[in-house]
């Protein structure tokens, strides 16, 4: 079975408390909603303390066209992606040229050549490295990228694959979008990057977790649950208030199907969950009867960083691997939800 060998993260340079962001949001929405102070309680209810962005807070007080925002995405995605990749490889003192395949994950900007090509160019990687840029999976992208790396090293058991996820959600901010979805988004999303190294079972590098299997699920006719609506000014968030309800309704049967396939009848020992928001975590906890303590790391990452889309579950995985004791044979469920409406599940086992 393939192994999760190492992880690395990169944090955006500008850190702000939730209270630092409130004045801009109040000014932006006050003429649209007479009850703005009541709506702004969403900032307190997120249970997020701090978030990081690639641009200073003054940037968000101004209107920027899509071309400007996307160029900032390219410049910052390359830098943060390189930092996360190098941090991941440094954990095991590995050269990039010893890696065979790079999977790049993002949904918050556009680039052709893709960001992975630019990262490999900057790092002077060997010219024959395989690369797969994956776009459009949103918050599910980190887990999905890990699944696709698993697929690759299953087919190439002597090789190594690295997943790099970069999301600059702050750059999608729409100052002139006065919808409630955009208001909620201003309280949740942030920037970051993460990387995970995966090895085939015949490669020399091993890790604390081996992957037993994965499952991707797409809910039919659910396009309007989350995603982007595009205009000349860029990305406008689609964010349904029904997400927690869908989690409670769909996730238990999906996970049952997954664990039954792998004949996992005993309790899952560890949960590495994408913390999309407080209500999503509560929906996980209640619908699956997960002890609150087992979601502690996901809650910590959400509180300290906000929702960094695809990177967030990899931040949880990074903290889990570096701080938690994992016994041989213990089952770990890695899970993330995204547009589509979709879910990605990964079952791993302690080595």
TrEMBL record:
Annotated coiled-coil segments of the chain: none
Active site: 139
Domain Chalcone/stilbene synthase C-terminal: start-end pairs: 213-349
InterPro entries: Chalcone/stilbene_synt_C, Chalcone/stilbene_synt_N, Polyketide_synthase_type-III, Thiolase-like
Record keywords, A-Z: Acyltransferase, Transferase
GO biological process per UniProt: polyketide biosynthetic process
Molecular function via GO: acyltransferase activity, transferring groups other than amino-acyl groups
UniProt keyword Acyltransferase present: yes
PANTHER family found in the cross-reference section: 1,3,6,8-TETRAHYDROXYNAPHTHALENE SYNTHASE, HYDROXYMETHYLGLUTARYL-COA SYNTHASE
Assigned protein family: Belongs to the thiolase-like superfamily. Chalcone/stilbene synthases family.
Protein name: Chalcone synthase
Organism: Collibacillus ludicampi
């Amino acid at each position: 079975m393939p192994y999760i060998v190492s992880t690395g993260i990169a944090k955006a340079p500008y850190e702000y408390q939730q209270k630092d962001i409130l004045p801009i949001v109040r000014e932006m929405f006050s003429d649209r909603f007479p009850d703005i102070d009541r709506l702004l309680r969403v900032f307190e209810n997120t249970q997020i303390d701090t978030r990081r962005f690639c641009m200073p807070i003054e940037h968000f007080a101004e209107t920027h066209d899509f071309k400007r925002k996307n160029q900032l995405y390219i410049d910052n995605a390359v830098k943060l992606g390189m930092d996360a990749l190098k941090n991941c490889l440094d954990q095991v003192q590995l050269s990039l040229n010893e890696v065979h395949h790079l999977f790049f994950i993002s949904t918050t900007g556009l680039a052709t050549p893709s960001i992975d090509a630019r990262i490999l160019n900057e790092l002077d990687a060997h010219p024959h490295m395989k690369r797969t840029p994956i776009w459009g999976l949103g918050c599910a992208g980190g887990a999905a990228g890990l699944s696709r790396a698993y697929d690759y090293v299953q087919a190439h058991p002597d090789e190594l694959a690295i997943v790099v996820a970069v999301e600059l959600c702050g750059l999608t901010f729409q100052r002139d979008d006065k919808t409630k979805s955009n208001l909620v988004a201003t309280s949740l999303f942030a920037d970051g990057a993460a990387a995970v190294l995966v090895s085939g079972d015949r490669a020399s590098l091993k890790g604390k977790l081996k992957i037993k299997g994965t499952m991707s699920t797409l809910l039919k006719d659910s396009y309007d649950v989350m995603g982007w609506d595009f205009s000349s000014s860029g990305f406008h968030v689609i964010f349904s208030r029904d997400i927690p309800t869908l989690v409670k309704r769909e996730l238990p049967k999906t996970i049952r199907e997954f664990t039954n396939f792998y004949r996992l009848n005993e309790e899952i020992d560890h949960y590495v969950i994408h913390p999309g928001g407080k209500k999503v975590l509560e929906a996980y906890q209640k619908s699956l009867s997960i002890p609150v303590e087992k979601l502690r790391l996901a809650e910590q990452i959400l509180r300290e960083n906000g929702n960094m889309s695809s990177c967030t579950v990899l931040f949880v995985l990074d903290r889990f691997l570096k701080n938690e004791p994992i016994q041989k044979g213990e089952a770990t469920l890695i899970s993330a939800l995204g547009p589509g409406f979709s879910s990605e599940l990964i079952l791993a086992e302690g080595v």
